[in-house]
Design a protein that fits this description.
Chain A: It holds the Pfam family oligo_HPY. Chain A: This is Peptide ABC transporter ATP-binding protein. Chain A: InterPro entries: AAA+_ATPase, ABC_transp_ATP-bind, ABC_transporter-like_ATP-bd, ABC_transporter-like_CS, Oligopep_ABC_C, P-loop_NTPase. Chain A: GO terms for molecular function: ATP binding; ATP hydrolysis activity. The complex is a heterodimer. By secondary structure, chain A is α/β, with parallel strands linked by helices. Chain A contains 11 helices and 12 strands. Chain A folds into 2 domains: 213 residues, P-loop containing nucleotide triphosphate hydrolases (Rossmann fold, 3-Layer(aba) Sandwich); 90 residues, no CATH class. In chain A, the strands form 2 sheets. Chain A has an 8-stranded mixed sheet, sandwiched between helices. A 4-stranded antiparallel sheet of chain A has the order 2-1-4-5, covered by helices on one side. Chain B has a single domain, classed as P-loop containing nucleotide triphosphate hydrolases (Rossmann fold, 3-Layer(aba) Sandwich), CATH 3.40.50.300. In chain B, the strands form 2 sheets. Chain B has a 6-stranded mixed sheet, with helices on both faces. Chain B has a 4-stranded antiparallel sheet with strand order 2-1-4-5, with helices on one face. Chain B starts with a strand and ends in a 12-residue tail after the last helix. The chains are: A alpha/beta, B alpha/beta. At the A-B interface, helix 6, helix 7, helix 9 and helix 10 of A face helix 8, helix 9, helix 10 and helix 11 of B.
Chain lengths: 335, 270
């Protein structure tokens, strides 16, 4: 196995909270609390989790938009981000991002040509003016738009087309990694399918590594090679996309997979849902031990004292649960 | 028939000309039945039900007929006087919207908002209305309902807000619940809880459901019959079993094919 293109180790993003009274010690909101990720060229890692689990903060930390509190981000073995100007600049160029709301992420007063050309002015200064113009036109065609769209404004385009413009803007600087934060959740299914096809095609063509963040498990399964599941700032399970949701090992992944409605009336009647207790705890005050234990139907006494590590669980699979095997074998009964 | 819609047309006068949002919609709804209306953005699915309740924008022109059972020969909703519609809305047909934050009044405590419906349609007063409102919140499993009833909408999470909307919609035990993308903004586990709650409430009150959604998985689990809409017209209708097993229209087929699946097709659930 080659070294990964992007390697993230023990990444933490903690936002300081102001204490309620001066004599109290200041707490922190642990949005991302020790995440390890590996991204490979030409591959897609899916990242799933529900609102507030920290997946968007993780994406922002990887692109330098959120402050990293601790941990390392390496691209090709070299540290990215941080104080040094060269490293920060390389991060900005080599790790690009596309956003959920395609229209809101485009400046309404700039033409499509200006939008796609803008990152080149800063990140590809070595290219001549003529070269940049050529690249912009080529990239617009690559994403399924044409050169005559170049002088139009974002409001003249549909949501799917705006997302194509966002993809062109991200890829025109020739990044190595593309972070996609809920890129299709605002789109209709037929448009969604075409954007997913486009992303997969561009990934293969340019050999970029994709981190695909979404709350829609079925979409993630479709585009990803491997999938990581996030809960309250931590990864709880990781494995191949094709098998993770068929045989989830972590109780949270089980609950997620069991909650997805399927377009199949007979299957829907027989679907058994795993119900979670209570609500998502605050990331400012996470539970001790396993962060999922307060909602887990299989929680045991030791879950409150021991923090589960993301450990090996079969080929290419990792799970952060003390009792994954016992739950699978039916030795622990859900409460 | 509880509700009988015939040749419903909705047009909007815009500076760029007339937009035909709904072009001749027919459907019937029997008591207790569940009907899914499926389509993509701009298919006219939301505009059709807003038209039934007289909730369209001022530049809308509506024609056709929608008769709600009751009285002599039923109540015609299309073109009905405001007074007639106000007696139907909330009391006999209640609506659950996609975004509870914009559907709830941000300035009022939720107990006041639910009590308002009961005062208006059920003639309850002050304390009795409030007590009933708290019961409704308990019925949708809001923990510590008596205390949280005094909260404002922004103090709830998205899922809790949607529960409040359901409590409000059910307050007068309507015969028809219209839910417009009720779970689209929610996480999957919360969506599952809200859908369970809706099914449970219908089992208890016997309300019919019109569920508007783009999510074919949600329709498969919640509805008995469905309409597939595109560009203001129904392209396919029938029982869900039949449509999912053998869609007849090309558009339905394309729509089903475009849905990403968590399970391999034909594999069934676990």
């Amino acid at each position: 196995m080659n070294d990964p293109l992007l390697r993230v180790r023990d990444l933490k993003v903690h936002f300081p909270l102001a204490p309620a009274w001066p004599w109290q010690t200041a707490g922190a909101l642990r949005a991302v609390d020790g995440v390890d990720l590996d991204l490979d060229s030409g591959r897609t890692l899916g990242l799933v989790g529900e609102s507030g689990c920290g997946k968007s903060t993780l994406a922002r930390a990887l692109t330098g938009l959120a402050p990293v509190s601790a941990g390392r981000i390496e691209l090709d073995g070299r540290a990215l981000g941080g104080e040094r100007a060269a490293a920060a600049r390389r991060l900005r160029r080599d790790v690009q991002m596309i956003f959920q709301d395609p229209l809101a992420s485009l400046d309404p007063r700039m033409t499509v040509g200006q939008i796609v050309a803008e990152p080149l002015r800063h990140l590809r200064r070595e290219w001549s003016r003529a070269e940049r113009g050529r690249r912009v036109r080529a990239m617009l065609e690559e994403v399924g738009l044409s050169a005559h769209h170049i002088n139009r404004y974002p409001h003249e385009f549909s949501g799917g087309q705006c997302q194509r413009i966002g993809i062109a803007r991200a890829l025109v600087v020739e990044p190595r990694v593309l972070i996609c934060d809920e890129p299709v959740s605002a789109l209709d299914v037929s448009i969604q399918a075409r954007i997913l096809e486009l992303l997969a095609r561009l990934r293969d063509r340019f050999g970029i590594a994709l981190l695909f963040i979404a709350h829609d498990l079925a979409v993630v399964r479709q585009i990803s090679d491997a999938v990581a599941v996030m809960y309250l700032g931590r990864l709880v399970e990781r494995g191949p996309a094709a098998t993770l949701f068929d045989a989830p090992a972590h109780p949270y992944t089980r609950a997620l997979a069991s909650a997805v409605p399927r377009p199949d009336p007979a299957g829907e009647r027989s679907r058994r849902r795993i119900r979670l207790h209570g609500e998502l705890p605050s990331p400012a005050d996470p539970p001790s031990g396993c962060v999922f234990r307060t909602r887990c139907p299989w929680a045991q006494a030791d879950c409150a004292s021991q923090v589960p590590r993301l450990r090996e669980h079969g080929p290419d699979r990792r799970v952060a649960c003390h009792h994954a095997e016992a739950i699978a074998a039916g030795e622990i009964v859900a409460a | 028939m509880l509700l009988d819609v015939r040749d419903l047309q909705v047009r909007f006068d815009t500076p760029d000309g007339v937009v035909e949002a709904v072009r001749g919609l027919d459907f019937e709804l029997a008591g207790g039945e569940s009907l899914g209306i499926v389509g993509e953005s701009g298919s006219g699915k939301s505009q059709s039900v807003l038209a039934l309740l007289g909730l369209l924008a001022a530049n809308a022109r509506v024609s056709g007929s929608a008769r709600l059972a009751g009285g002599d020969g039923g109540i015609e909703l299309i073109g009905a006087r405001r007074r007639v519609l106000e007696r139907v809305r909330g009391a006999r047909i209640a609506m659950i919207f996609q975004d509870p934050m914009t559907a709830l009044n941000p300035h009022l405590r939720i107990v006041t908002q639910i009590a308002e419906v009961l005062v208006r349609h059920r003639g309850l007063r002050g304390r009795a209305a409030r007590a009933r409102a708290i019961e409704m919140l308990e019925a949708v499993r809001i923990p510590d309902a008596a205390r949280r009833a005094r909260y404002f909408p922004h103090q709830f999470s998205g899922g809790m807000r949607q529960r409040v909307m359901i409590a409000m919609a059910l307050a007068c035990e309507p015969e028809i619940l219209v839910a417009d993308e009720p779970t689209t903004a929610l996480d999957v586990t919360v969506q599952a809880e809200i859908l369970d709650l809706l099914a449970e409430a219908r089992a208890r009150t016997g309300a019919a459901l019109v569920l508007i959604t783009h999510d074919l998985g949600v329709v498969a689990g919640q509805c008995e019959r469905m309409l597939v809409m595109r560009e203001g017209e129904v392209v396919e209708r029938g029982g869900i079993e039949g449509i999912f097993a053998a869609p007849e229209h090309d558009y339905t087929r394309a729509l089903l094919a475009a849905v990403p699946r968590l399970d391999p097709p034909g594999g069934g659930g676990s």
